[in-house]
Design goal:
Number of helices of chain A: 14
Shape of chain A: globular
Structural class of chain A: alpha/beta
Strand content of chain A: 15-25%
Radius of gyration of chain A: 24 Å
Helix content of chain A: 25-40%
Number of strands of chain A: 18
Oligomer: homodimer
Chain lengths: 421, 421
């Protein structure tokens, strides 16, 4: 079959027709001059009602991988395992692929990079991180030549929408979550978003581009807001702060990287304080360019479809990620640091297990219904006890800076004095 | 002479060694792994004291254009006319060139694009607009596939530094300007920055990438802050607002574009309200991706040098601007609209010449030292009378929305009634 001439539209094989797939399809219908046409659409469920005529759909995605008339494959399905099977198979055939599946990319990035190097295909995934914000491309291609000591941000629009609702309306978590679900800003199963698995995947992807570090998502701490209450919001407000779920990529002077996601108390001096509802925000500290901040819509069919379209145009222009800071394709552990945290509803055994240091006594407050402590905790211990914290209904939020893990001072022990003679 | 192998560093010919040139040089010295080496440096003045040994410099920039061993030419001199002569000559030889000269690019963009098309060279100029913020590349390459109804922002760090000082310290213009000059945040001749010629050039450049419009800078309205007083700052504060110099690129539904730069009163709901000191901020409204905001350092040797380095890396990767929205290489006029403005110290003849509409009576205020009016003015009339406004010491600031130019209602005239028979 002949290849299209340079001026012909590029032919897309679209795998998946959910929120992102429909967003992309709609944008391309309204932008015929963009130079892309959806040639084939593969979906999973033959009986689901869809907004296009039934003859637009087929049900064997593998058939699209085999079709040489398709210039680019766009994978936008929900299932990470099936997405990896399809994308890795396409890359094994040297194809050009765009995906929006953050969980899949975060878990399989070393293999996905290796497959591109071996078979010459290209994979782009801008839509996987922060929706319409061009964060991956900018960090990879624009800031590829300089160190980025810190990259942090609000990477999940659903939990931010809930936090904005709780803060502005004084409502409780369950009420606001139900409203967010009704309005389409939160999934029916909210765990991935509210327990911060989703922003953790995005942080793992960015760590590869920003710091050249490949991390196993399971090794990265994620703390969420499933157990937040109005009391926590009030506690933050009493300090002039808001609570936001912040992903933090922190490069250590020695070259290591710490990556974790946790609720954090922030004041108005932080640009993230002003990121509300379903928006995402990213702060980048660049060695020479200085501090940067980007804000945009983190979710939604059109914004995410727009990011997929930007990847399609980039593929047409010959762009590929350079991974400019990446060394060997081996995963490393995030470096361990101590972080100042607020912990509420923390059972005594867990408090002991976390070995908190420099604990401030909580000031007595007559209107305070529950107890909390503030102290320094090691990220590695928070990670080890994360499931126990969730099971106990504890809420944990970062309140202050990172610092090196303190050496436990040795017990007092005096050497006999040696008199110089 | 043999070409360098792909792994050899690319050899740069650096023309100019002021703030940006030294910033780039310093970054490259600290980043030997970036893959670029400054091979030759041409400067104008043979007697000036410089921070490198004298044998690093030569004095005939044309010699660099002729040197086939140089992979990329970097033009970072002050003089726009000489910069155009050198860059256009280099493009005529099909060379790869990076420039930071906004005035030159804004004035000669049609020729610069035509030369690249004819001779196959490439010109990048990210450092010309908003220092370290990747605004041109993102608008050209990432948002090239969708309409951008509005692009606006703070494009000049010097005037923003002065406004921040006036607002926070309550000081007058001359005092803060002198302090900014002493700290290196404003030039000795402040006209280009304070009278908004500099942000106008940047707006003209962005109009080509964002809206596909080539404009003659002289046809674009620029109003500055040379005549701002503490009374204006107080007036804004009384409305809960700050004054910022905002460049506005506004795309009309019919396809035209309005571009102008003027002081503007903004409240805390605007992201630009929070952009202080020498920082720049850019707001982009994208048809599908929605609202975006970017903030970063707008000036300085390292931030601007970082933007030049990003262009060098982009050239190495084969990147070139696509100008995705550009049609014919002809300049057009900005579309005319009416804008709500605050005008203080406006002589009566000028008030008549501006033909203000819907003028609000200024409320009586006993502590108000000077008179002002608020009303709608046509951008074209403000442009026609810009020099007279400056000469009269008037201060003009946008206070409200844009609207179509109103038709002057015809004088009352009654047709004789025709009775239907």
């Amino acid at each position: 079959m002949s290849r299209p001439s340079p001026t012909s539209p590029l032919r897309l094989g679209l795998i998946g027709f959910g929120c992102v797939g429909q967003g992309l399809y709609d944008i391309l219908q309204r932008q015929p001059a963009a130079g892309f046409v959806v040639q084939r659409i593969a979906v999973k469920n033959p009986t689901k009602l869809r907004p296009l005529p039934a003859d637009r759909f087929e049900f064997h995605a593998d058939d699209l991988l085999d079709d040489p008339s398709l210039d680019i494959l766009v994978e936008v399905i929900d299932d990470p395992a099936e997405a990896f099977r399809l994308v890795s198979e396409a890359l094994r055939r040297g194809r050009r692929v765009v995906t929006a599946n953050k969980a899949m990319v975060a878990r399989h990035l070393p293999e996905l990079i290796a497959l591109q190097r071996r078979f010459g295909g290209t994979l782009l995934y801008e839509a996987a991180v922060c929706g319409s914000i061009p964060v991956i491309r900018t960090i990879d291609a624009y800031f590829g030549q300089e160190a980025l000591p810190e990259v942090s941000g609000i990477f999940n629009g659903s939990s931010n929408y809930v936090l904005t609702g709780m803060t502005s309306a004084g409502a409780d978590y369950a009420t606001v979550l139900a409203e967010a679900q009704a309005q389409g800003f939160a999934e029916t199963d909210p765990t991935l978003d509210m327990a911060a698995f989703d922003p953790r995947a995005k942080a793992v992807i960015l760590a590869a581009h920003a710091h050249g570090r490949l991390l196993d998502p399971d090794q990265v701490l994620n703390l969420g807001i499933e157990h937040i209450t109005a009391a926590d919001i009030r506690f933050a407000a009493g300090r002039g702060q808001k609570i936001k779920v912040v992903a933090c990529l922190h490069r250590l002077p020695g070259g290591g990287t710490t990556v974790f996601v946790a609720p954090q108390l922030l004041g108005p001096e932080s640009p993230l304080y002003h990121v509300e509802r379903e928006f995402n925000g990213v702060e980048v500290e660049a060695e020479f360019a200085g501090p940067h901040f980007w804000r945009g819509r983190g979710a939604g069919g059109h914004p995410t479809g727009s990011a997929v379209l930007a990847d399609l145009a980039a593929l047409r222009a010959g762009f590929r990620y350079a991974y400019p800071k990446l060394g060997a394709l081996t995963t490393t552990l995030p470096a361990d640091l101590e972080v100042e945290v607020y912990l509420r509803n923390l059972p005594q055994p867990l408090q002991a297990a976390l070995a908190l240091r420099d604990v401030s006594d909580a000031p007595a407050a007559p209107d305070r219904a529950e107890d909390y402590v503030i102290g320094y905790a090691r990220l590695s211990l928070l990670h080890r006890h994360r499931d126990a914290l969730r099971a106990a209904g504890a809420f944990v939020a970062r309140t202050g800076p990172l610092r090196p893990v303190a050496e436990v001072p040795a017990p007092a022990h005096r050497e006999p004095a040696v008199l110089a003679g």
